[in-house]
Write a structure and sequence with these properties.
Length: 218
């Protein structure tokens, strides 16, 4: 339901930025090093959302052929060097962030991607001027779907849960918002909109500009 929110917490991958190709290339770089065939883009996308370690574990399967720590190190090294090769903000996202900022809404990012990589993407795409705070998967002892990240961002923004909105593309984002007692809005352009619909998430917006109505700042 539309409301008036003073603070919006965005997921990163699949919500603000399209990282699919760079993530897939990094996953397949690790697989090729182990003599494994490439995974299709859509398969990799379904593995994203719970952090780099779980992504690598899922990509290599139950018998990875090397330690997960080693595979994760290879993934992070490659991805860190190539995370902006193909990644870009989704169409309309930059305009949305500018419009929300102009209306006095504080904007944060909560992601399970490592914080330094997340900040590099936000900076590299010219979005950092809109984002007040960013918490990554290694910023706290816990990560999504634990509500601690939302709680911390609310503290940093000085805005309570009742006037905070979480925006994301996955069931993990929805579960995190629910655990924190914060309203959730799904996006249909992300990696796994089908999981949101299966969860019964409402609302789910089709275009970034629709969020202005949900936030109550049309």
């Amino acid at each position: 339901m539309p409301g008036v929110y003073d603070h919006v917490i965005f997921d990163l991958d699949g919500t603000l930025v399209d990282t699919r190709i760079d993530l897939s290339l990094a996953v397949n770089h690790v697989r090729r090093g182990l003599g494994l065939p490439d995974l299709p883009l859509d398969v990799v996308c379904r593995m994203v959302g719970e952090g780099a370690r779980i992504l690598v574990q899922r990509a290599l399967g139950p018998e990875p052929g090397c330690s997960i720590d080693d595979a994760l190190a290879r993934f992070l090294a490659y991805y860190g060097a190539h995370l902006l090769d193909h990644t870009q903000a989704y169409p309309g996202v930059r305009e949305l962030l500018a419009a929300l900022t102009a209306r006095g809404v504080l904007l944060s990012v909560l992601t399970n991607k490592p914080a330094a990589m997340s900040q590099a993407i936000v900076d590299g795409l010219g979005l950092s001027g809109y984002i007040t705070h960013l918490i990554g998967g290694d910023s706290l002892p816990v990560r999504k779907p634990d509500p601690a990240g939302i709680e911390r961002l609310c503290q940093l923004a000085g805005v309570g849960p009742a006037r905070t909105l979480v925006v994301g593309d996955s069931a993990i984002d929805a579960r995190t918002a629910r655990a924190a007692g914060v309203t959730f809005c799904g996006v249909a352009w992300g990696f796994a909109p089908d999981t949101l619909r299966a969860l019964g998430a409402d609302p789910i917006i089709e275009q970034p500009a629709e969020l202005l109505r949900v936030v109550g700042r049309v």
